[in-house]
Specification:
The chain is α/β, with parallel strands linked by helices. 50% of the residues lie in helices and 12% in strands. Strand 3 and strand 4 (85-90) form a beta hairpin.
Length: 625
C-alpha cells in the first residue's frame, strides 16, 4: 500500500484533472505547519490563481469538494485555510493501522512499497585506494559513501555491481618501490605491511626534494611496470597485493565489501588501453601534438577554443609513450558499459568465495564472466578529480556513445580535514589561528582508518556492555559521521563530535534502537489485534509520521545518490522515538490494554524501521549496548 503522502498527491492530481488543469502542473503536498490545520497541506490553489484567473480560496474550495467526494483512503476530512491552502485531516484509526501494518511486513519479510527500480545494472566504483600505503580517513569517506549508495540502490530494487579499482601501475606505487630499493628502510617487528609502506612513502617523498636522481629511478620503475614481464613488475604486483589485502581487512571492520577488484595492470596487460587508443585515434577523438610543450603526446582537444589550454589532464599518452591515468580510466569506463569488445579473466580472491579479482591469465576455477555491461556507472571520486572525469565522459561522446555518457555519473565529494583538537590528539602541530588541517599522505598528516576505529573503540569501551558491542557501535559511529555531511561539504573531523552519545551521531541512533529493543523485551506481545486509541498523543502522531516516511526517504536517497538524506531521516526517526519515550507514560506501567498494545506496536514498528535504516547505512542495529 502506498504511503499517505503518495495517496494524497495522486488524489490532488485527480482533482486537478477534474477541473481541467494541465497534467504538467506540479503537485506539492507537505506536512502542515500547524497541527490544528490538519496533517497534510497543499498550496496548489495558490499556484493556479494566475493560471485560472481566480481567487486562490475559490480554487481551493472547488478542489476540496472534489477531494471530499473522492473519499480518499485514510482521510476523514478536507478543509481550506487562508489564503488558499487545502488541508487533509487523517482518520487516525485507518492511518495508524496502515503504518503499523507496513512496518510489520517490513520486519517479517523486508518488503517495502517502493517505486520500480531502473532497468539494467548499476555499476558503482568506490574506494580505489592507491596500493602504496595504509587507508586513511579520506579513503574511508569514499568507501562509506560508495558502500552506502550501493546498499541504498539494492534496497530500492536496483541490480548493483561494486568495483574497487586497484591503481597498481601509478606513480605512488612506484614511489614506494623506489623507497624500499634505494633508502634501505626496514619493516619493524609486528609493523603491518601497509603502515610500513606508508613510512617509506613519506620518506621517499621528502628525499625527492633533495635527490633528483631518484625521480629518474621512479620513471624507470613506471616504464618497467607498463612493459610487464620483468622482475620489477612482479615485485610491484606482490607489493600491491599485500597492501590490498590489508585494505580489505580494514574495510571489513566497517562492513564494506566489493564484488570485483579490477587491476590497472590487467587493463594494460590485456590490451584494454591499446583497444581504446585505436578507437579514439580512428574516430579523431585524440590527436598527436606535433609542436609546443606537448609535442609527441597524444591529447584529447578541448571542447571549445575557450577551454583550450595545455592542461595535463587532457594528455592521454605522454611523449615517452606512458599512458596517463585518465587514459586508463577511459578504457575502464568503456569496459564498464560493455563497449570495449574485450573482457578480463576472473579468479577468486584468496579464501573469500564472494570476492572476485581480474587477472591476465585464465585459471580453471574462474568464476562466470558476468561483470560489467552496466546501464549506468557511478564513479565515487573526490571533487579534485572533476576534470579528468569530464574528460572520460567527453571520450564517450566523441565515440558517439551519448547514452553511456549521460549515464556516467561522477559522484563527487569533498575531502576530510582535521579540527585543531583532533590534530592535537594525534600529535600534529598546526599554525595558530588555523581552524582545520588538510590531510597529506606525503607529509604524514593523516588519520589511518584502523587507528581511527581503534581510538573510537577505546573511547566507547568504558560504557559498552562488552568488547564486541563497543566495536560495532564505534564502527557505526565513524560511518555515520562520514555520511551525515552533504557531499559538497569538507569534513573537519573531530573525535568528540563523532563519538557523542547525544545529538546527531551514530551512537545516538544505535542507542535508540537498543532502547526500543529493550522495551519490547520488557513488554510481552499478547498476540491480540492492535487497536488504535480514540485519541493519539502528539508524540505518537509524530512518530507514526516518521515511521511512514521511511520508504520515501529511501527513494529520495536513491534518486539523489546522497547518503546524508538517509542519515537525516534516521536521526529524525530516532529523535521522534526519544520524544515519544520521554513524553508518554512508560508502556510497562500502562494499565489500559488498548493503549499498552498500541504503543508496543508503535515501538515495534519504530525498531523494525530504524534497524532497516541502520543496516542500509552499513551500521549494526544492536539490541543492547
Amino acid at each position: 500500500m502506498p504511503d499517505t503522502r503518495t495517496l494524497l498527491i495522486d488524489a490532488v492530481r485527480r482533482a486537478l484533472d477534474a477541473i481541467g488543469v494541465d497534467a504538467a502542473f506540479e503537485v506539492v503536498v507537505e506536512r502542515s505547519a500547524r497541527p490544528e490545520f490538519g496533517d497534510w497541506s497543499t498550496p496548489v490553489a495558490l499556484g493556479l490563481a494566475r493560471i485560472l484567473h481566480r481567487a486562490p480560496a475559490a480554487i481551493a474550495a472547488d478542489l476540496a469538494a472534489h477531494l471530499e467526494a473522492a473519499q480518499v483512503p485514510r482521510v476523514r476530512a478536507w478543509t481550506v485555510t487562508p489564503p488558499g491552502y487545502i488541508n487533509a485531516h487523517l482518520d487516525d484509526a485507518r492511518w495508524a493501522a496502515a503504518v503499523l501494518a507496513s512496518a510489520t511486513v517490513l520486519e517479517a519479510s523486508g518488503t517495502l512499497d517502493l517505486e520500480s527500480a531502473a532497468a539494467g545494472k548499476t555499476l558503482v566504483e568506490h574506494t580505489a585506494t592507491n596500493p602504496n600505503k595504509a587507508a586513511h580517513i579520506g579513503h574511508l569517506r569514499n568507501a562509506c559513501i560508495g558502500d552506502t549508495v550501493a546498499r541504498v540502490l539494492r534496497r530500492t530494487g536496483h541490480v548493483v555491481e561494486v568495483n574497487n579499482y586497484i591503481d597498481d601501475t601509478g606513480v605512488q606505487v612506484a614511489d614506494v618501490v623506489v623507497g624500499i630499493r634505494e633508502l634501505g628502510i626496514e619493516q619493524m617487528p609486528d609493523e603491518p605491511f601497509d603502515q610500513y609502506c606508508s613510512r617509506v612513502y613519506i620518506a621517499i617523498s621528502a628525499r625527492y626534494e633533495t635527490d633528483a636522481a631518484l625521480l629518474e629511478r621512479r620513471r624507470a620503475v613506471l616504464r618497467e611496470v607498463e612493459e610487464g614481464g620483468n622482475a620489477t613488475a612482479v615485485f610491484v604486483k606482490d607489493l600491491a597485493r599485500r597492501i590490498v589485502n590489508a585494505h580489505l581487512v580494514t574495510m571489513r571492520r566497517f562492513d564494506i565489501a566489493y564484488d570485483l577488484l579490477t587491476w590497472e595492470s590487467d587493463i594494460i596487460g590485456l590490451g584494454f588501453w591499446r583497444q581504446a587508443f585505436e578507437l579514439l585515434r580512428e574516430s579523431g577523438a585524440i590527436v598527436l601534438a606535433e609542436s609546443g610543450k606537448l609535442a609527441g603526446c597524444w591529447v584529447m582537444p578541448a571542447e571549445t577554443a575557450e577551454d583550450d589550454s595545455d592542461d595535463d589532464t587532457k594528455v592521454l599518452v605522454k611523449s615517452d609513450g606512458i599512458a596517463t591515468y585518465t587514459a586508463k580510466d577511459i578504457a575502464y569506463q568503456l569496459w564498464k558499459f560493455g563497449l570495449l569488445g574485450r573482457d578480463f579473466n576472473y579468479v577468486p580472491w584468496g579464501d573469500d568465495p564472494a570476492l572476485v579479482t581480474t587477472a591476465t591469465v585464465p585459471r580453471g576455477d574462474a568464476p562466470p564472466a558476468h561483470f560489467g555491461h552496466a546501464q549506468r556507472v557511478i564513479n565515487v571520486i573526490d571533487a579534485r578529480q572533476a576534470y579528468p572525469q569530464r574528460v572520460v565522459q567527453r571520450a564517450l561522446r566523441r565515440l558517439h556513445h551519448e547514452r553511456e555518457a549521460d549515464n556516467s555519473i561522477h559522484l563527487s565529494y569533498e575531502v576530510v580535514a582535521l579540527t585543531p583538537a583532533a590534530a592535537a590528539e594525534l600529535g600534529i602541530e598546526i599554525e595558530e589561528g588555523r581552524d582545520s588541517v588538510a590531510l597529506s599522505g606525503r607529509r604524514g598528516i593523516e588519520v589511518r582508518a584502523d587507528d581511527l576505529l581503534d581510538r573510537a573503540i577505546a573511547r566507547l569501551s568504558a560504557n559498552a556492555r562488552d568488547a564486541a558491542t563497543a566495536t560495532v557501535v564505534a564502527a557505526g559511529a565513524v560511518r555515520y559521521y562520514l555520511l551525515k555531511f552533504s557531499l559538497n561539504q569538507i569534513i573537519a573531523f573531530d573525535f568528540d563530535d563523532a563519538l557523542r552519545v547525544t545529538g546527531d551521531t551514530g551512537v545516538y541512533l544505535q542507542y535508540a534502537h537498543a532502547r526500543a529493543a529493550g522495551i519490547l523485551r520488557k513488554v510481552a506481545d499478547d498476540a491480540l489485534p492492535v487497536d488504535v486509541p480514540s485519541a493519539l498523543h502528539p508524540a505518537e502522531r509524530e512518530l507514526l509520521h516518521s515511521v511512514e516516511a521511511y520508504a520515501r526517504a529511501l527513494t529520495e536517497t536513491a534518486h539523489a545518490l546522497s547518503p546524508s538524506l538517509l542519515t537525516t531521516y534516521a536521526f529524525g526517526l530516532a529523535a521522534a522515538f526519544s520524544d515519544f519515550y520521554e513524553h508518554t507514560p512508560a508502556i510497562v506501567r500502562e494499565e489500559d490494554p488498548v493503549i499498552r498494545r498500541f504503543r508496543r506496536g508503535l515501538v515495534a514498528a519504530t525498531r523494525a524501521t530504524l534497524a532497516d535504516a541502520l543496516h542500509t547505512l552499513g551500521m549494526a542495529a544492536p539490541d543492547q549496548v
